Structure formats: C-alpha cells, structure tokens
Amino acid sequence: MLPEVGTAGGVSLFGRRLPREALVSVLVLGVLWELASRNAATLGIPPIAIPGFARIVQSLGSLTVIDVVVTVARVLGALVLSFVLAVLCAISMYQSPRIERYAYPLVRLLMAVPVISWILFAVLWFRQVEFRIGFVLVAVCGPLFLVDMLASMKGVSKELRDMIRSFRPTTVQFFGKLMLPAILPSVLTSWKINLSLAIRVVTIAELVGAVTGIGHQLSVAQELFSVADVFAWTFILVVVLFVLEAGLNQIEARLLRWRP
Question: pTM of the entire structure?
C-alpha cells in the first residue's frame, strides 16, 4: 500500500496518519543507523551488530511467506476464540452478580500472571505445539476482552436497559438488540489492544517448540548470530500489525458509520 500525502503535512500509511515530525525522526534515525553501520569498526563495534540497510533488505528478500501466514493465522484464531469465550463469560457474569463475585477475582488473578509463566505452564502441561501457543494467547488475551466487555455492559444507561426490559425480551434479544450494539465501540478498542498484545506474545510463544512462524525464525536468526535477519523479521512483524490494524479500522468505520 502506497502512502498518501495528507493535507496537514503528514502521510496516511496503513490507515494511520503519520505527522511530518514522525517521518523526519524516522529518517534521521535511519541515517544515523546507516552511518554507524559504515563506521562500526571505527566506533569499536563489531560490524555484525549493526547491519546496513542493504544487508537488511537482502534478508527481507530471503524470508519465507509461510511463516508469516502461520503466525497471522495463530493470532487471529486465538483472538477469535478468546473473544467468543469472553463474550459468554461476560454475559454470564453480568446476568448473575453471584457468579461475578466468585469469578471476577480469578480473572484479575489470571491477568497478573506474567506471559513467561503461561509459556512455562504450557510447555509443562501440553505436548502439542499448536495447543501450547493457542493456550498462551487465550490465557493472555481472554481476560482483557472479558474485563473490558463486562465494564462496558455495566456502563450502559439504566434508562435504556429498563426500557428494553419493559418489552419483556428474551436473553438473546436483550443482548443482541441493546447490550452488544451499545458496547461495540469499546469492543473494537479492546480488539485493537489485544491485537497489538497478541502479535508480541505469539512470537515469544513460538520460541518454545515451534518449527514454523516468525518467532521460530527469530530464534534461528539468534542462533546464527544474524542481526540482519532479526531486523528483517521485526520489520515484518511491525508491517503485519499495521496491516491488521488498518483492516480493523476499516471494520470500525463501517460498523460505526453512524458516528460523526
């Protein structure tokens, strides 16, 4: 996707407005990096530690698309599963304060567990690599979805809830006609947060036992001491995140086109 020049002195890239100052900062950083790469020996730095852009571009040309596809599929699959489970749990906790009183502390406890601990649990508990990765992603992203949706449901106007209940709706009608549309903006924001989080977490999860995916390729690059490959795969991760967020922004614009 080619950047479009904006009217406010910036560019639009992957659905995001980048100001002129940000572009200048990135350009300056790139120039300094290239100068440091060319003068690494003079600076007393091993040349392998600061590869030039030519070497990074060469690494980009040798990357395997299948690893990118596998990582994206893992992220999207885990996010969809996390979202579905979170919706069901949020509805149950919203309808039953008793369930919420018992379950909510456990959810907060899960959110306090570090990612590395979930990865170690997955390795010790499960043999299947894909199940390990999915487990880690769901354990990290699911509670965030749940907390955001439950808080948004409680924030819906009491007048609207009472009005809908006056028509004696079924549970499906109550949540389908009022609650879910009302919390849609918050849900989309939660998706954006979890998408960024999942991209970071999946690469760590793929370091343990996976033989495909960007995380695995980063591990291979580290074993080969190839800093250029690490930069190349990192760049791909950033691009993947921007593309997915741009798609999510398009969905948001369509679903919330009623907003000014």
Answer: 0.82
